[in-house]
């Protein structure tokens, strides 16, 4: 844990990520008593802001518990006392020197030497990651305590650019000082995967190719890329959520048992399993882009290409992808891991489906496959599709669920937001839920050849389309069936 006091500098404090995620998470940590006693939070951005404007901005998205309105408001007022703001440029040494001088004279003078820790949270666009990291390292690096730097994707656009970024950052901060956020690793059900796998004996012997037929990790969002056309078009759905979020979930499902719950032991196993995955074959992909639903009921939704923030009106960037990954090791050979992700679909859902094989010599013709479902969001749940005798005089088999729906089971427990959990990990110096540099490289290696083919409009790449608000391209059902997924289960 961080001994003593800490100054958290939020760089890019006036941006969306900081307002929507970082400050609300910091407030919840404060409210729940998890910020070290002597914590100060300094917002840093280019915009000149009065203190009052800054407070307005960064507290705008903080939600207070209405049942306890006055007490919550008091806590928020206390929290505001911890907040400071410094305007400065991202590429001038003088600006970081001013930041350093401010922290030293105003915040650290009462803190014990040796315990004057600093956390730099970079809520910034990738174009300034390295210049800002350099400015901080040269001019605002703590010499009387620990330094931690928190960065967030995109970590490059392919293997080469990601390696370059790792190299540049690595020259400025050590790997133990760097925390690469993949916020999916802060989600409750993602954090639960290891617990479920490695603390329940019923899974240890069936978690392999002998018993598991296929695995699907699905990400669905019901909204398009409206307003984010600029960013999104450069990245596309594979870079946006698959190479990072979905692949992290896959690693946790597929990795071997780590020798301990130590961060490096866990990350070692993730890297190992990623290294067993060959680059994705074009044949194992289905790509799509959404089109508007101008004749639909109610809201007329614009297609991807019609978004005014999109510059390239003939863009071939995928907004949907289904990709199949194969893990070439003894445990998983021949088991398809199907990653599916899309914007502008029919619902909001992230889940993992682990479909087991058919029962051998099945006595009961109507028995369906077992399937373990981990619902990450919304409404966290873990359930197992399970065959049961129809209660009563019938001997018919019915499929039912062994159901652990969190809101029924853990009625008094609040589930923290991913950022709250991850920021606490940073303060506790726990890297388990952060991406290590070699892990990042191993992840990019799997996707880079396919991404380059998409970027170059290679003739072998076929782009399908799907309607805004639909289940995805019409080809999807056949695609997953081809890899053995039995949809008769999916109700
Ligand atoms: C981000 C992507 O990393 O994750 C977004 O850039 C996506 O496009 C978001 O919407 C999804 O996160 P969550 O927590 O809302 O599922």
Structural account:
- It catalyses: D-glucose 6-phosphate + NADP(+) = 6-phospho-D-glucono-1,5-lactone + NADPH + H(+).
- GO terms for molecular function: glucose-6-phosphate dehydrogenase activity; NADP binding.
- The chain has 491 residues and is α/β, with parallel strands linked by helices.
- 35% of the residues lie in helices and 21% in strands.
- It contains 14 helices and 15 strands.
- The strands form 2 sheets. It has a 9-stranded mixed beta sheet with strand order 14-13-12-11-7-10-9-8-15, with helices on both faces. Strands 3-2-1-4-5-6 form a 6-stranded parallel beta sheet, sandwiched between helices.
- Helix 10 packs parallel to helix 13.
- The longest helix is centred in the middle third of the chain and has 26 residues.
- The radius of gyration is 24 Å and the shape is globular.
- The model has no long low-confidence stretch (mean pLDDT 94).
- The chain binds 6-O-phosphono-beta-D-glucopyranose (BG6).
Number of helices, counting only DSSP H or I runs of 4 residues or more: 14
Range of strand content: 15-25%
Bound molecules: 6-O-phosphono-beta-D-glucopyranose
- Summarize the amount of helix as a percent range: 25-40%
What is the element string, with H for helices and E for strands?
EHEHHEHEHEHEHHEHHEEEEEEEHHHEH
Protein name: Glucose-6-phosphate 1-dehydrogenase
Function: Catalyzes the rate-limiting step of the oxidative pentose-phosphate pathway, which represents a route for the dissimilation of carbohydrates besides glycolysis.
GO molecular function: glucose-6-phosphate dehydrogenase activity; NADP binding
Family: Belongs to the glucose-6-phosphate dehydrogenase family.
